[in-house]
Amino acid sequence: MSDVILRNVNKIYPNGVQAVFDFNIEIERGEFIVLAGPSGCGKSTTLRMIAGLEEITSGDLIINNKRVNDVAPRDRDIAMVFQNYALYAHMTVYNNLAFSLLIRKVDEDEIHRRVMAAAEILGLVPYLNRKPKQLSGGQRQRVAVGRAIVRNPIVFLLDEPLSNLDAKLRGTMRKELMLLHNRLNATFVYVTHDQIEALTLASRIVVMADGRVQQIATPKEMFDNPENLFVAGFIGTPPMNFFHGEISEDGYFIQNLPDEYNPKLEELASLEENKENLSSDELEKYNSLKKEIDEASLKCNKIKIADDKFAVLKEQGYIGKQVVMASRPEYVYLDDAHLAQFKDCVFDLDSDLDEMLGAYSLVYGKFGHENIIAKVSVREVVKSGEKIKACFDNSKLHFFDVDTTRRIRAEEYVGLPKEEGDEE
Ligand code: ADP
Fold first, then answer.
1. Ligand 1 center to residue 41 CA distance, Å?
2. Is the CB–ligand 1 distance for residue 39 below 6 Å?
3. Could you write out the DSSP letters of every residue in 43-75?
4. Nearest Cα residue to 185 out of 112, 139, 104, 121
5. Which of 240, 243, 287, 408 has the fewest CB atoms within 10 Å, i.e. the most exposed one?
6. Burial class (CB in 10 A: 0-12, 13-18, 19+), 190
7. What atom of ligand 1 comes closest to residue 20's alpha carbon?
8. Is residue 15 in contact with ligand 1, taking CB distance under 6 Å?
9. Would you call the peptide bond into 238 cis, given omega within 30 degrees of 0 as the criterion?
10. How far is CA 283 from CA 75, 145, 262, 272, 406, in A?
């Protein structure tokens, strides 16, 4: 059963800003949905529309099988936890927890039962008589969550609830929230700009950019198969490495020449267009340019594309076309075993810096003229400035269309309706 459904939801603020475009999702009971994306991408607006704090401009919001676009927040079966906790400073923890039930005229015994149950779950029993200012940040956060729990809602809405806590406490509270979610078996919709929070908490992540959903997927799916360049760059630390180049007929990715060759490439192309009518001077120019570029091209990195991926690229007409090739830092290897296994995917990585981060190291270097980061185990750490070989696991490489920014994948064009006027 879907607890929450958003269908073609749009939000245009009165000043004309469209904050959310055509948002669609069906959220099942017990899911932990994380809305993630950079500041200003429309996460909070989406959450606030579900909460009833912002009007929905168009589309449908269905909670528990009922269209609730026009239902008041307090009658929506939701409870919201805010970033700033919004606790009542003059009330004890007990009363903070009880307050929303009091104003709903819930029976006194029932209020006590629910407050004590929530306090028990959250470890707040010893603090029930304290005021918020006598609590630590983490305890205040727990009270804010407790105020949602006592309402016994179908859906918990959480807007960056951990962003006011220091890094260590955030980690602890993240774990607490996960345990709480498992225990309550309720549906959570959680907003964060922090992709690590998204990866660790979510059953499914919704990545947004500029008011539009970029991808909805499990953390693993999103990490392994990002739908477009935005998601690829947003999810994962350090982010994916991107390289620019062309697909060759014989199944290689051939890296582009550095940008400084662009004027020469353009000149060569324009001479080539007129090749029949070149003067002898122009012909000489053409030949020398061609020689220079051919020689430089020989030094460009060449990476063998895995057979199945090449078949897809070929089928979709990418031979001779520009693409972005992407590799997660986790799948760049420096060790001998991988270098032997992926010998068609080896390149020189001139490391200029490495960073030891506990169990692994980040090695910063070059793939041709482009930057690359490798995330390797500390055992493989190299000395900065050392000339070293590295390789990709080519089964893990992704290719993206430079114009649409979408990942090129087998299903891409299957079943898409034909555009009007398409040739049979
Ligand atoms: P996020 O939560 O991802 O940071 P928001 O949902 O707060 O993003 O904002 C999305 C966009 O809507 C931004 O461009 C923001 O400036 C705009 N916006 C948010 N609230 C309002 C408002 N009350 N009036 C006009 N524009 C708003």
1. 7
2. yes
3. HHHHHHHHHTSS--SEEEEEETTEE-TTS-GGG
4. 121
5. 287
6. buried
7. 10
8. yes
9. yes
10. 79, 76, 20, 10, 40
What one-character DSSP code corresponds to residue 293? H
How far is ligand 1, taken at its centre, from the CA of residue 65, in Å? 28
Our answer on whether the CB atom of 48 is closer than 6 Å to any ligand 1 atom is no
Q: Which two tokens stand for residue 166?
A: 């220091």
- Going by alpha carbons, the residue nearest to atom 13 of ligand 1 is 40
HSE-up of residue 195 (Cα within 13 Å, Cβ side): 18
pLDDT tens per residue, range 356-407: 777 788 989 999 999 999 998 866 666 555 678 999 999 999 999 999 999 9
Strands, sheet with 58-63, edge to edge from the N-terminal-most edge strand: 18-28, 2-12, 58-63, 66-67
C-alpha span between 166 and 84 (Å, rounded): 14
Determine if the pTM surpasses 0.85.
Answer: yes
Q: What are 165-173's contacts with CB under 8 Å, separation 24+? A: 165/137, 165/138, 165/141, 166/137, 169/137, 169/138, 170/197, 172/138, 173/138, 173/141
What percent of the chain clears pLDDT 90, i.e. is strictly above it? Answer: 60
Q: Which atom in ligand 1 lies closest to the alpha carbon of residue 208?
A: 3
The answer, yes or no, to whether any atom of ligand 1 lies below 6 A from the CB of 325, is no
CB 122 near ligand 1, within 6 Å: no
Whose structure tokens read 């060790």? 335
Q: Is residue 414 pLDDT above 70, yes or no?
A: no
215 lines ligand 1 (CB under 6 A): no
149 Cβ below 6 A of ligand 1: no
The yes-or-no verdict on residue 14 having pLDDT over 90 is yes
For ligand 1, mutation pick of 23, 45, 191, 192 (most atoms within 8 Å of CB):
45
Contacts of 367 (CB under 8 A, 6+ apart): 241, 243, 255, 301, 347, 349
Residues 217-260: tens digit of each pLDDT = 999 999 999 999 999 999 998 999 999 999 999 999 999 999 88
